[in-house]
Amino acid sequence: MGVPLRSGNVRKPNETMRLIITTFAGVVFGFFLGVSFPTLSLTKMNLPSSLFPSIDLTYIEDKYSGLSTQTLLNALNSLKANKVVPAPSYRDNETKIWIPTNPRGAERLPPGIVASESDLYLRRLWGQPSEDLTIKPKYLVTFTVGYNQKNNIDAAVKKFSENFTIVLFHYDGLTTEWEEFEWSKRVIHVSARKQTKWWYAKRFLHPDIVAPYEYIFMWDEDLGVEHFDAEEYIKLVRKHGLEISQPGLDPNSGGLTWAMTRKRNNTEVHKNTEERPGWCTDPHLPPCAAFVEIMATVFSRDAWQCVWHMIQNDLVHGWGLDFSLRKCVEPPHEKIGVVDAQWILHQGVPSLGNQVHLNPLNICEGKV
Fold it and tell me: In terms of CB atoms within 10 Å, which end of the chain has fewer, N or C?
C-alpha cells in the first residue's frame, strides 16, 4: 500500500517541471513570433463586429499606419474611451487601396490602370484603338499663327513629314478658314484670341502630354524655310548631342541681334561665338554660349520637362527666357547650340502685336 504513495510523490515534481518547461517554451516562441511580425493589420482580421460596434478599423489603421501593434491597441482603447464618432464603415468584402508610388491624386487606384501620360494623337470615333494610327509621330511641332500668315505657314507645314504631329495655336480666333489647305484636316487647332506661344505652351504642352515626342519644335509664324529640312535637322541635333537648339538664321533676317544665332558657313553646328566687347562676362555663358533665341527653339523631351516648369503662368512675350534656358541642361555650353547646315530666315513680322486693335472679320476679308 506504501508503494503507490511513494510513486505518486515522485511524479508530482516531474509533472510540475514539465509544465514549467512547456510554459517557458511557449512564452519564448510567442516572443520571437511577435518580433517577427511587429505590426498588425486590423482590417485583415476577421473580428466579429460585436467586439467593436462603434469603431472603424480601417480608419484606425490609416491613422496609425506604421506603428506597433501595442500602439494600435492603445489607440483603439483610447478611441473607445472617448466615444469617437466612427467614419463610414466599409463592407467586409471591400479593400481600401493606397499606392503611394502612384501619381498624386491616383493613390487609390491599382497601378495597372493608371495612365499618367497622354499624347496628341488624333483618334477615330469607331474601330479598334490599336488601328487608329498607321504611324506614331515621334516629334511635335507647334506654330502660333494668325490667318494673315497662312502662306508662310503652308510652306512651313509642308517641310515636316508624317513623323511630326503638328499643332496650330490661333491667336486671332480664326480656325475653319484654314480648311482651304488639305493638310489642315490632319493638324490640331487650338484657338484663344490674343495669346502668345508661351501662354499656349504652359496650358497645352505639359510634359506628361508631350511625353511620346522625342523633340518639340516651338516656332513662330514668320520663318522662311526654303533651306530647311526637318528630318535632316533631327539627325544633326542627335549627332551633336543638342538638347536645346535652333536653326541658324540667314544673315538677311530681320532684327538679327545676336552673333550666336547667325548662320555660319562650312559647319554643321556651332555652340559658341564671340560677341561685341563687354557683352560676355564668361565665354561659356549667354550670349556667347549656352544660348539660342525663342523664335524657333527646338527642345528635347528631357529639356522641355524642365523648361515647362520654368515658364511662369503670366509670361507673355518671353523676352529674357532665352538667357535662362541654360538652367535646364548640363553642361549648357555643350548641350545648347545652333544648327548651321539647316537654316531659316526670320522675317520679323509683328503680326501678334497688331492684334490689339484688329477685327477678325477684317482679316478674313483681306482688309488688313
Answer: N
pLDDT digits (tens, 9 = 90+) for 185-241: 999 999 999 999 999 999 999 999 999 999 999 999 999 999 999 999 999 999 999
CA distance 213 to 200: 17
What are the grid coordinates assigned to 229, written together? 529640312
Distances in whole angstroms, Cα of residue 186 to Cα of each of 104, 155, 228: 34, 15, 22
CA atoms of 59 and 43, how far apart (whole Å): 9
According to DSSP, residue 311 is labeled: S
What are the backbone dihedrals phi and psi of residue 331, each rounded to the nearest 5 degrees, phi first?
-80, 135
The grid coordinates listed for 50 are 460585436
In angstroms, what is the C-alpha Rg of the chain?
A: 35
pLDDT interval class at 255 (50, 70, 90)? confident
Please give the distance of CA 42 from its chain centroid, rounded to a whole number: 37
Closest among 87, 108, 90 to 99, alpha carbons compared? 108
